[in-house]
Design a protein that fits this description.
This protein is an alpha/beta fold and about 750 residues long. It has four domains: about 130 residues, no CATH class; about 270 residues, Tandem AAA-ATPase domain (Rossmann fold, 3-Layer(aba) Sandwich), CATH 3.40.50.10810; about 190 residues, Rossmann fold, CATH 3.40.50; about 120 residues, no CATH class. It has 30 helices and 15 strands. The strands form three sheets. The protein has a seven-stranded parallel β-sheet with strand order 5-6-4-7-8-3-9, with helices on both faces. A six-stranded parallel β-sheet has the order 10-15-14-11-13-12, sandwiched between helices. A two-stranded antiparallel sheet has the order 1-2. β7, α12 and β8 form a beta-alpha-beta unit. α5 crosses α15 and α7 crosses α8. It is an enzyme of class 3 (hydrolase). Keywords: ATP-binding, Chromatin regulator, DNA-binding, Helicase, Hydrolase, Nucleotide-binding, Nucleus. InterPro entries: Helicase_ATP-bd, Helicase_C-like, P-loop_NTPase, SNF2-like_sf, SNF2/RAD54-like_C, SNF2_N. It comes from Malassezia obtusa. Belongs to the SNF2/RAD54 helicase family.
Length: about 750
């Protein structure tokens, strides 16, 4: 175990020499002036050069001290070197001066290292100093807000959740003891009759109003299912009630929840005049012309796609919004994306991000979110912040990473409000999770073993890439393809082409062209096209035409999967209590198979995927909610995991696992939320002895780390979706390669 001292010291522990001035080159100038942004107009060039030189010396001396003390693990984690390079550097210690470091690292006898590694360390120290400057500003804001909220807290309300790094308010004082115009003891009077906010929601509105009054943009990060939508609408209703409107408000949402937001705005506060900016190009053009001539609307509601598209984006930039709300705000996690850059250009006096996902799953993404809502505090030091919070997979336990998390939590605390379901919804129904281990059928076993054999060559080739100098990208794709084949075999054999032989495809094509609509088709090209389809796709095509229906696969083939048999049992179990089920899959092709299987079982169902028309999605949800005779809702994990409310169901079946377990958790929370009156059962389908088990084990580890960073227990977790998927694939590939080699080493029976 390494000591904390091997990480860069926190600000309080740094040596006492005079703090050098900030780098002048970090000043951001958005003006069109030709004057250089690197110099302060009130200082001479010589003074500025002196200031920069002094700061560089200070940074170099900090780096020298750290270079002499840090352990190998921290060095690898921080300056982008290999363990071998770290060992070489440690062997060269002690270094007497900065020049001594550069000289020794540049010596030809010091193989494998270069002076650039020390330069990396100097840049790291410079970054930490800039981070501490930003941190000081954040803590000053936090102290001001703490003082304002001091009288809000009750004996049962801990106020600040330092374990997560966020404010946590849940209980309202109604005894008149709080004399604060930002504090709401009663909900806004213009909410619709019958609407009653819960205490933590009313406090959320108060918190939003406090930060709005102080013009400090923020993030509402309540756990999924706690009614962030209701709090936002109530906040906007309160602003309307006060009559201090400084322009219309803008709400930007994913396309899948546009209609739900429109309905909720009408449901919670009918007096809000809402304009939905959505439709065809011609319809949007008419809306723009109409809105340019009037300003009597309170809220404009649109989607991310609309807000970033050509003429729509130009129009929104000129509207002069007061409040801008970004639902599913974690979609803005990439500060280099076109979406991020375009939305930054839509001006608003105050910004509010809504997200229910852990904000510290990746620290760089957190900095992107904070920079988006508070550019005046974070943009100037954005590059330094991004560099400091950059971390490689698996580097999350070092002292340096612990320092990162400590700083990140302290930075985010003033700007984030987060409450957890288990803390504020004491009456929330019980949630039970279980793993359903499924025995594969003979057909699945055969396909899985074939895929394992293909995996052997692909993984061995991937392992040989560094030695042979092969193209890494192509090999990575090959590895991903064979891993995908393993996932498909664990799900269902009809995801391959096994039953439709070349001879059967020829017969299908011949019958297909008998249909008048296809009489002109080229038979050779048709057979080639059919050959790249799966058994399921070809059977579904065959049943679409009278001439080809004899090629439809029998019911036994559709039911020929261990997971399908397990799903049948689960549906029967749930229906005994009149319970209803959400079934999620990563693959739309698997959902197509499930549709046929449910038809054969005689089970009514509805469903949608990412390809379902946005305007139809809410109607499908409503149909399911209002018709209890429909027991099953089929959804793709990512399309169905965003923003929709499906409390009419209380069973969730994850037919296969997402590489990022947070996506599965989001899917589960579609029914485990406010309004759920029944116990919730979550079932994960896992084919025994397959890649499913590897994905489950590694995803569970990621969930545990995410819980650590969000306050369940002390710890640290860093990694974005791509990093998570890359790490899991890498570990699985390594595990599978080991399995394949073990099988190859055994003599054939």
């Amino acid at each position: 175990m390494y000591s904390v001292q091997s990480a860069p010291p926190p600000a309080a522990a740094r040596p006492p020499p005079k703090r050098p001035p900030k780098r002048k080159s970090r000043v951001v100038d958005d003006s069109d002036s030709d004057a250089s942004a690197e110099f302060d107009g009130d200082s001479s060039e010589d003074e500025d050069a002196y200031d920069v030189d002094e700061r560089q010396k200070y940074e170099q001396n900090l780096a020298l001290g750290w270079f002499n003390k840090c352990d190998a693990n921290s060095m690898v984690d921080s300056i982008n070197c290999t363990p071998e390079q770290a060992s070489t550097i440690i062997g060269l210690r002690p270094f007497e001066t900065v020049d001594d470091v550069y000289e020794r690292l540049g010596d030809k006898s010091a193989k494998g290292v270069s002076p650039r590694l020390f330069t990396n360390c100097v840049e790291l120290m410079a970054g930490y100093m800039e981070v501490d400057d930003v941190l000081a500003k954040c803590e000053a804001i936090g102290a001001e807000l703490d003082q304002a909220m001091r009288t809000w807290q009750t004996s049962s309300d801990q106020g600040i959740d330092d374990s997560f790094g966020a404010v946590n308010l849940s209980e309202v004082k109604r005894d008149g003891a709080v004399n604060d115009e930002n504090y709401l003891q009663e909900q806004p009077s213009n909410l619709a009759e019958g609407i009653t906010l819960k205490d933590y929601q009313l406090l959320g509105v108060s918190w939003l109003h406090l930060l709005y009054r102080k013009q400090i943009s923020c993030i509402l990060a309540d756990e999924m299912g706690l009614g962030k939508t209701a709090q936002v609408i109530s906040f906007l209703a309160y602003l309307k009630l006060q009559g201090k409107r400084r322009g219309p408000h803008l709400i930007i949402v994913p396309s899948s929840v546009l209609e739900n937001w429109s309905r909720e705005l009408q449901h919670f506060c009918p007096s809000l005049n809402v304009e939905v900016y959505y439709g065809s190009q011609a319809e949007r053009r008419e809306i723009r012309m109409d809105l340019r001539e009037r300003s009597d609307y309170d809220v404009m509601l649109t989607t991310y796609d609309m807000a970033t598209a050509g003429d729509d984006h130009k129009f929104l930039r000129k509207c002069g919004f007061d409040v801008c709300v970004y639902d599913e705000g974690h979609m803005l996690k990439n500060r280099r994306s076109q979406k991020y850059e375009k939305l930054m250009k839509i001006s608003a006096r105050w910004r509010l991000l809504l997200t229910g996902t852990p904000l510290q799953n990746n620290l760089q993404e957190l900095i992107s979110l904070l920079s988006f809502i508070l550019p005046e505090y974070f943009t100037a030091a954005e590059d330094a912040l991004a560099a400091i919070f950059k971390v490689k997979p698996g580097a999350g336990t070092s002292p340096l990473s612990q320092q990162r998390v400590i700083r990140a939590k302290r930075m985010m605390r003033p700007f984030v409000l987060r409450r957890r379901k288990d803390k504020v919804l004491l009456g929330l129904t019980k949630k039970t999770e279980r793993v359903e281990y499924c025995d594969m059928t003979d057909a699945q076993q055969e396909l899985y073993q074939d895929a394992l054999q293909r995996t052997k060559s692909a993984l061995v080739e991937a392992e040989d890439v560094p030695a042979k100098g092969a193209k890494k990208g192509a090999t990575s794709r090959d590895t991903s393809n064979v891993l995908m084949d393993l996932r498909k075999a664990a799900n269902h054999p009809l995801l391959f082409r096994r039953l439709f032989t070349e001879k059967r495809i020829a017969a299908l094509a011949k019958d297909y062209v008998r249909e008048p609509e296809h009489a002109e088709e080229n038979l050779t090209h048709l057979k080639e096209d059919f050959a790249i389809n799966t058994d399921a796709e070809l059977s579904l095509l065959a049943r679409s035409w009278k001439s080809t229906q004899k090629h439809v696969l029998p019911v036994e083939e559709w039911m020929n999967s261990g997971k399908i048999q397990a799903l049948k049992r689960v549906i029967e179990e749930a229906r005994k209590n009149n319970d209803r089920i959400l079934v999620f899959s990563q693959f739309t092709s698997m959902l197509d198979i499930l549709c046929v299987c449910l038809e054969h079982m005689g089970v009514p169902y509805v469903g949608f995927t990412g390809q379902t028309n946005v305007g139809d999605r809410q109607h499908i949800v409503d149909h399911f909610t209002n018709d209890p005779s429909i027991p099953v809702f089929l959804l793709s994990t990512r399309a169905g995991g965003l923003g929709i409310n499906l409390v009419a169901a209380n069973w969730v079946v994850l037919f296969d696992q997402d590489f990022n377990p947070q996506n599965d958790k989001q899917a589960t929370d579609r029914c485990y939320r406010i309004g759920q009156t029944k116990p919730v059962t979550v079932i994960k389908m896992i084919s025994k002895g397959t890649i499913d088990e590897d994905i489950l084990a590694l995803a569970d580890r990621k969930l545990e780390l995410a819980e650590q960073v969000s306050g369940e227990r002390k710890g640290d977790a860093e990694g974005n979706d791509e990093m998570i998927e890359s790490e899991i694939k890498g570990r699985i590939a390594s595990s599978l390669l080991s399995q394949v080699r073990d099988r190859a080493a055994k003599p054939e029976e």
